[in-house]
Amino acid sequence: MTIRQRITLLVVLMFAAICGIGGYAFQQFRQGATQVRLVTEGVVPSALASADLVSRLKDVQLATIVLASAPDRQMMEQAKEKLAASRKQLREAIAHQVAQAAGSRQKGLMEQAGESLDNYLSAIEETMRFKDAGKNELAQANLFGNVVQYQGELEQIVDTLRIEKNRAKDDAIIALNDNLATTTTTLSVVTLLAALILSAVGMLLYRRITGPISRMQAMMSEIAASQDFTRRVPVQTMDEIGRSIVAFNGMIEKIEESSAQVRQKTADIQAMLENMPQGILTVVEGVRVHPEYSAHLETILETDDIIGRNLMDLLFSGANLGADALAQIDAAVRASIGEDAMNFEFNQHLLVGEFEKTMADGRVKVLDLSWSPITDDTDTTVRLMLCVRDVTELRKLAAEAGEQKRKLEIIGEVLAVSQEKFHEFIVGSMKFVTENEVIIREHPELHADAVAQLFRNMHTIKGNARTYGLNHLTNVVHLAEQTCEELRKPRPKLAWDQSMMLQELFKVRDMVELYADINEFSLGRKGPGLRAGAGRYLMVDQEHVLESLHRLETVNTANLHELLSAHETVRRNLRLLGTETLAETLGNVLDSLPSLASELDKETPTVKIIDNGYRVRTQAGGVLKNVFMHLIRNAMDHGLEVAEVRRLQGKTPAGTIHISADVAGGMLRLELGDDGRGLALSRIRRIAADKGLIHPAATLSDEEVAQLIFRPGFSTAAQVTEISGRGVGMDAVQDFVRREHGSIEIQFCDDRAGADYRQFRTIVMLPAGMAVAGDMPPAALAPADNGTRGNTAAGAQLGNEQHAGMPEASAAQKEAV
CA-CA distance, 582 to 7, in Å (whole number)? Predict the structure, then answer.
């Protein structure tokens, strides 16, 4: 018999006598049943649903972490979709709780939850924007800063709501018990009136209604208090109470599933934090490390003593930073925390991004740092987040790759130069280095002439290196040259320091030796090559050898004139041994003109060489290269105009440089001129007056003004460049020429005396023994009258004109003799 049947029987039996009391009792029963449903299907489910909010929050947090750590675009898009779904579910859960809120306290909590949710989702949106912009470190920093902060705030509100819901549930159950007690009392009164008739029915009702409800209430309370959602309330009968218990058990099962998911997601998040390959910490006031930090930080710093440590002691002990830099870091951190976020922006440049740290065992680690401020609602920096990465291996691999790349580039530079010319360059450079070392050691104090000579030598090495395209050596020499240039100034900022000067010089020497080693050991090009040994191997036209042999074999020994002619032919051919044309000697200097023109934004000039049949002895090649390297570079920079200016003046876009060789007065006469604007005499006068070389009111002839360009440190360049402006070109040329017992002068080619610009040519005179007349008779080398060129008719006919970029036409093959 069901509860309803028993009550119906009781009502029939007592209807006539206690109709009013029975009706009242029935009404109380229905109210009790309504309250049971309210508790089991309303208050209790609402309280349990509040626990589900934690699961939704964990879903959002997990999706956000996956998004911030996504290694590629595809995973990031998947994480975005999952994050959107989780956020939607979280909003729906919050909305459900808002609808179920009862009382002003619960509604107030839900308003706080809504505001916290907005902040939480805004922080997530900011993390997504950093991620979309490719700022992964800022995305992770924002994740562990703002997102985690609002996550905790929201979880606290939800936990408070859950407690409030449980309290409401307990109050509802107590009210239900009170109502049931009233019902029981009413039934007791009826029972007193019909004790004998209804005693058995009353006991049945108690067992069928009050007992199960009490047991259900007790078990619900135990489950709620213990949070053990694996337990179930047993169902004895499928009446109203039984169906309520079944619904309750179904809710408990869903809560258990949600709790398992929350535990798994929490474990996943913790695992990600534990295995994240970055050291993350936050710095609070007092430059102390906050207790929250990533596990990988202990691996990087090789210590677990981190919490509460002073950042400067924990991170920067053993750093390769000076006391001033460390003090600036400490001051910048202190000036940022607790102040407006703008302070961090102002001081961020003082916070180092990378440094070397020496560990306890002597190993050196390279640590990369990324600083980010954590601010509150008032834009005040409450903490600084610091991401630490160990990039030691990355920097080591990068250094090794850079060294390999440098060697490969040097090999390419060396291969572009012939073995003979490269050997000649190395020997000449080492000679200049050795000479500079002697000068430095002989002068314990600053000496102007010594510094000028040091600078000339370094500038010449650099110029030759640039001519041959040896860029790595050029850069090293440039640093040593800069020091010499500073010491040349009237009031140098540097003090003369022999040790420092020698160290810079040794760096140049080491780089020259590196080039030499790569040439010899890596490329197997040992020594000067086949053509360089003038004392052992000589190059001569095969035609000349055959001609000499033919004359000796066919000469009529009885004819004195034929013997003299044969003797002269053989002598002339033998004189050509160990010589080369002027174009061959200056080959590399001329080959560098295209790159030089490109640096100056000018057209590559045409170079015309008229050697008048004279050849240069190979021993003189070094000095001629040094001299013309400076002269041609000066002509390119100071003489020839840019293409636009030349067009306006009716000239060809590319200029022309003329070089000629002749012998006069027992000296080899070399001339260099160009079709540029000429020598800037007015500018030379002004600069000389500014430098105090001449009195501003002094009256000088154009020739005297022209001589000023040979002064050490004099230059007309508007600014210092890699090519000119250091005042060393003509000074160095004059020094090279004088060492060979020669001279140099400026000779004007026009009659525009006193003009701002005058056309000129540079005349270099060297001992005649440096040249050999190719097919000219010996008389051509004799001193000429009045200092004019010693061109005979034969010499003029055999004069040879050659153009830069066009090899000299050879009438016969050359071979080693």
Answer: 134
Based on the fold, state whether residues 736 and 765 are members of the same structural domain. yes
Q: Between vectors from CA 383 to CA 382 and to CA 388, what angle results, nearest 5°?
A: 165
pLDDT in tens, 356-398: 999 999 999 999 999 999 999 899 999 999 999 999 988 888 7
Three-state DSSP state, 522: helix
* Cβ-count burial 101-126 (b if 16+ within 10 Å, e if not): beeeebeebbebbbebbebbbebbeb
End position of a domain, from candidates 522, 544, 563: 522
Low pLDDT (below 50) residues in the chain? 532-538, 720, 722-723, 725-728, 776-817
Instruction: Say yes or no: 256 and 333 in one domain.
Output: no
Q: For residue 543, is it within any domain? A: no
Give how far Cα 697 sits from Cα of 393, 680, 754, Å.
67, 18, 15
Residues linked to residue 289 through DSSP beta bridges, in sequence order: 283
Q: Are residues 382 and 403 in the same domain?
A: no
**Quick one: DSSP state of residue 520?**
I
**Residue 138 amino acid letter:** L
**Do residues 198 and 206 touch, judged by C-beta distance below 8 A?**
no
Residues comprising the chain, all counted? 817
Predicted confidence (pLDDT) per residue in 156-172, tens digit: 777 777 777 777 767 77
Instruction: Identify the domain containing residue 42 by its residue range.
Output: 3-273
Q: Please name the helix (run of DSSP H) or strand (run of DSSP E) that holds residue 618, with its range, or none.
A: none
Assign 510 to helix, strand or coil.
Answer: helix
Give the span between the Cα atoms of 322 and 325, in whole angstroms: 5
The residues, any chain, with a CB within 8 Å of residue 747's CB and separated by 6 or more, are 760, 761, 762, 763
Nearest to 229 by CA among 202, 260, 268, 198: 260
SS3 for 724-778 is CCCCCHHHHHHHHHHHCCCEEEEEECCCCCCCCEECEEEEEEEEHHHEEECCCCH
Whether residue 299 is found in the same domain as residue 383: yes
Reduced to 3 states (helix: H, G, I; strand: E, B; else coil), residue 781 is helix
- For every residue of 679-721, DSSP letters joined together read EEHHHHHHHHHHTTSS-TT----HHHHHHGGGSTT----SS--
Q: Given 3-state DSSP classes, what are the helix, strand and coil percentages for the chain, each rounded to the nearest 5?
A: 65, 10, 25
Number of domains within the chain: 4
Of 333, 395, 399, the closest CA to residue 365 belongs to: 395
Return d(Cα 542, Cα 564) in angstroms, integer. 22
Residue 314: the pLDDT is 93
The answer on 43 and 153 residing in a single domain is yes
Residue 501 and residue 597 share a domain: no
681 and 719 both lie in a single domain:
yes
Shared-domain flag, residues 673 and 589: yes
Run of H or E including 356: strand 354-358
- Whether 14 maps to a domain, the answer reads yes
